[in-house]
Amino acid sequence: MSNITGAASAGWGNRIMDRFSHMRSLYGKAVTKAPALRERFEKAGLTPAGLVDEGALNRLPVLTKERLMQLQATNPPFAGFLSCDIAEIAHIYVSPGPICEPGLANDKTGHGMDRMFREAGIGPGDIALNSWAYHLVPAGLLFDQGLRAVGATVIPSGTGNTALQAQLLCDLKPTVFLGSTAYFATLVEQLASDGKTLPADWTLKHAFLGGEFGDWSAKRRAIENQYGLKTWSCYATADFGLIGFERDGEDGYQIHEDRYVQICDPVSGAPLPPGDSGEIVVTTLARGWPMIRFGTGDVAHAKTLAADGGVQQISALEGRVGAAVKVREIFVYPGHLEALVRQSDGITAARAEITRQDGRDYITLELVKDGNTGVEPQEEKLRVLFQSLTRLKADRLHWLESEADFTIGGLLVDSMPT
Questions:
Q1: How many whole angstroms separate alpha carbon 179 and alpha carbon 335?
Q2: Strand order in 396-400's β-sheet?
Q3: Residue 157 and residue 160: Cα distance in Å, rounded?
Q4: pTM higher than 0.85 for the full model?
Q5: Gap between the Cα atoms of 344 and 352, Å rounded
Q6: SS3 string of the chain?
Q7: Could you tell me which residue, 215 or 78, shows the higher pLDDT?
């Protein structure tokens, strides 16, 4: 473990010395293929050759995820940002929004996910049960690729089939689990109902769990103590893959050396000093999908900075900027509610509230019937449409006669505890 960490630290130190040089080369080539990227530089009065330091980089306004979603809607699928040939793409991921992200065929690391597994000491001989979705969204495949890159064996279980997955945790003797914290708890409950005694009846040594906002260290320590394993988390997005990973004994996330991260004022886009909370803004140093000064919408603070001004370590996530709400590891946007109304017959308005009870996220919809058309809304069709827009199931639907009957105080309300 110490050798891995030491090598990683040396790699970081060497890498940061030439990140702006690499940016100039990478984005100099990218603007010749990606007209939308070229337009961003032109509007800022900048060329890739001018990316000499953080001050020059900051001349580019932050591109928000919501804006990228709008641009892709008018110019699908990549809004003019793709900077490689289609033949170089192995996968096109479709995240809720929808937002399309390319996965390059020559990427064998799972968008850098191997970095996290190497840091945790995962390698040949480890068997990993990967319960993240392999369908449309990138999580399942990226974790899979990262595990294979370090030599681990993968059980691609995906989502659902809880009883079977619980059985596999005992029968196939995996040493690694990957999934949301909530689904881990569900599997534990299933095993308890099956009469299993944990940790005696399984071989798990590591659990890579989906994070929660704020300090969830107490919950993780409880899991570790009760089930005899080590928990890990990371900071990753569909746009970049791995951004930050954990080191044993350290708080927060160490930034992947191929991501230039800034913590910025969510209004002005200006970088903030360490300790001040702001939006995580990322510039990639990987080719093909040239996201530069891209606002993730997530909030954290910088703990340490690298020599070139980029953030070297961030805190745990502290929340979200803007109107998106994270539900069961997937973001829901106000635009999803607007699309639900546009694409449905028999309703004129919709609102959603997200709550959490007993560790599970719940979605409640309030829907206003259209009394002028005579069309009776069909609940099952609305449920199916909502799920197609968000990849999430609505738990409760309440029908209203007018907008004056709304009890939810906005288009999309996050009522989960912080």
A1: 27
A2: 396-400, 360-369, 347-357, 412-414
A3: 8
A4: no
A5: 16
A6: CHHHHHHHHHHHHHHHCCHHHHHHHHHHHHCCCCHHHHHHHHHCCCCHHHCCCHHHHCCCCCEEHHHHHHHHHHCCCCCCCCCCCHHHEEEEEEECCCEEEEEECCCCCCCCHHHHHHHHCCCCCCEEEECCCCCCCCHHHHHHHHHHHCCCEEECCCCCCHHHHHHHHHHCCCCEEEEEHHHHHHHHHHHHHCCCCCCCCCCCCEEEEECCCCCCHHHHHHHHHHHCCEEECEEEECCCEEEEECCCCCCCEEECCCEEEEEECCCCCCECCCCCEEEEEEEECCCCCCCCCEEEEEEEEEEEECCCCCEEEECCCCEECCCCEEECCEEECHHHHHHHHHCCCCEEEEEEEEEEECCEEEEEEEEEECCCCCCCCCHHHHHHHHHHHHCCCCCEEEEECCHHHCCCCCCEEECCCC
A7: 78
Which domains, ranges and CATH numbers included, belong to the chain? 2-108+240-320 (3.40.50.12780), 113-235 (3.40.50.12780), 325-414 (3.30.300.30)
Cβ pair 147, 117 in contact under 8 A: yes
For the stretch 118-171, pLDDT in tens is: 999 999 999 999 999 999 999 999 999 999 999 999 999 999 999 999 999 999
